[in-house]
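Researcher: Structure prediction, please.
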Amino acid sequence: MAEKKQLFQSGFTLVELMVSMTVMIIVSLAVGAVIVDGQNGWSTMYDKIHSDIFTDGYVVRKKFDSLMRRASGEKIYIGDQNQSVEVYYYSDGSATIDRYMRFYQSNENMVLEYGLLSPKSVLNREIICGDVSKCAFHQVGRSVQLILVLDNGTQKNTVITSAIAHN
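Model: Predicted structure follows.
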């Protein structure tokens, strides 16, 4: 009798290879899409955080907080329609309140004005930031709250901060 030899070959068939390659391509495309989406999100947030509008908001918040803490809580005046705040403070080495500072919106700028009380005169004006679309001040006791909306047409930043006059 003639013996038939069966050939057993180990390995994968062409169909198995095609299926596994298809699955790997789909998984690779999904992972690539996730990576690209993550990078786009990171770039968008980086651009927002480092834009002028957010930097200006940070500067206004810090300046408002530090200067309001230096002010006297006895005399705080909120201007017409809550558009400005004027506070009084002691100059260095003075025993009486002899200076004032006023935050207000002028056109699209947030302005800080320093001056003498007697006679009332302006010593300095500085523009703290631009692109101001809304500015409002509110007072509760010795605390003053600032609500500021900065808008440059492409981005919008709302700054809400409050400080207590300590002197």
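Model: Helices lie at 14-49, 52-70.
Researcher: Thanks, that helps.
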